[in-house]
Structure prediction request, 170 residues.
Amino acid sequence: MAGPLDQQKVRLDMRVTCTVNDKEQVADGVWEGESLLYLLRERMGLPGSKNACEQGECGSCTVYLDDLPTCACLVAAGQVQGRRIRTVEGLADGEQLDPIQEAFVECGAIQCGFCTPGLVVQAHDLVERVDNPSDADIREALAGNLCRCTGYEKILDAVRLAASRKAESL
Ligand code: FES
Ligand code: FES
Prediction:
């Protein structure tokens, strides 16, 4: 026989506090099934990270979570309590785009743009970590990011350009 708890929907809403793009953010009423991607887009006004598959397959939602590129759709919002997140919005310095963003624009590595924020975050991580990445390094780093439009060549060009500029500046 169904008890009172079976007959009513029980929700455990939470408060989540985290640092997003160097700013402390607090979200109340977070549902336990909510993703980090939803938290960022719908509660924190950061729609840069895109929701394309919501299954960890496309990489469009990639953000840094404690400095590691992560699919935001696969992380429960409650898991980011006290943690640091950096989204594509946090790469630019005010009006000044990050070099990887500039390279994407200059190389025309964007068509519909849906994959772009995730690719930019992933490519940013590669260029930060690896000096003079080979084409194999670039392809491996971006293997989890799907683009339906560009054929990838211009995206590879953009990463090569950003990496070569970084090498020149060292
Ligand atoms: S929306 Fe997260 S991997 Fe596709
Ligand atoms: S530019 Fe359209 S999905 Fe990549």
Remarks:
- The chain has two domains: 13-89, 99-169.
- The pocket of FE2/S2 (inorganic) cluster (ligand 2) is lined by residues 110-115, 147-150 (CB under 6 Å).
- The two ends are 71 Å apart (CA to CA).
